[in-house]
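Memo to structure team: turn this sequence into structure tokens by end of day. - J.P.
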Amino acid sequence: MLIDETTHTLLNLVSESGKNVSGKLANALGISRQAASARLRKAIAKGLIVKHGIGRGVEYTLSELRRVHQEYDRKGLREDVVWTSLFAPLVKDLPDNVKDIWRYGFTEMVNNAIDHSGADKISIWGVRNALYTQAWVADDGEGIFNKIQKALDLYEPREAILELAKGKFTTDPANHSGEGIFFSSKVFDHFDIRSGNLHFMHEEGLDDILIERPKNAPGTLVVMRLINDSTRTTKEIFDKFAAPEEYTFAKTIVPVILGQYEGEKLISRSQAKRLIFRFEKFKTVILDFDGIEEIGQAFADEVFRVFQSAHKDTKLVPVNMTTAVKNMVSRAKANK
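Reply from structure team:
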């Protein structure tokens, strides 16, 4: 279903918050509140939006146009069969680039659950509305962060999230490249993984975040969401992180804030070593310092002098630095 720009704006507003939609739409389009209300009623009549409550309690939500759900035994399951029988029909009339993204990300995440989780059951949901499609892949296995922690002998599961953000890691290198989660997190508008009491979320255009939850949930849940008329392609995402003319996964972007736990400041060499672990597998590492106010001398020295001197084939590119961070990085580089 093709939707015009005005309707797209309306659906976005409802998706963000279903309250005072007419007022928000009027402000967004520069029209009267009466005209905005008329467009809202039209969208309701078309079945794109559902109205809940009355008077001051009115709230709107996006209508579910289609929903699929299936639980599978993990043993003997094939991700291509799940795609063809369950999820492909949900997105079959969407643009080719959108279907390509879904085919890639969905099959990668189902395959991860099949090959790595050790689960008995895998459950999958898909929901589509007029604005976006969303998928959930859940298993009752060991939990992805615990599994990575054990495989890399990490101090705690939170460190596993930093390794996922870097990419090029797999617990089964003979059969997997370690690229699936990294690229899947980049092709979707929204991508998150929840396991145990940890929740890693990537939102297009925003910083990656780590949330600690009070509930310690078993297994792993992966959530993916993509706007139905997205212009993004898998090729542009792959090319962004490939070495020129080599088509190999050579560049990564690391949110430095994922290496900073609550209450910490990045000051020590041990924190730096936690951050730079496996950097040598890449030709270029973009270190995104967004959200980091300052770093210590020892931390900066370990990253930008010690590591860089020992790994001249890996280029470190710091971005989004405060003046304090930039000064400390410059000081470390000057001591080479």
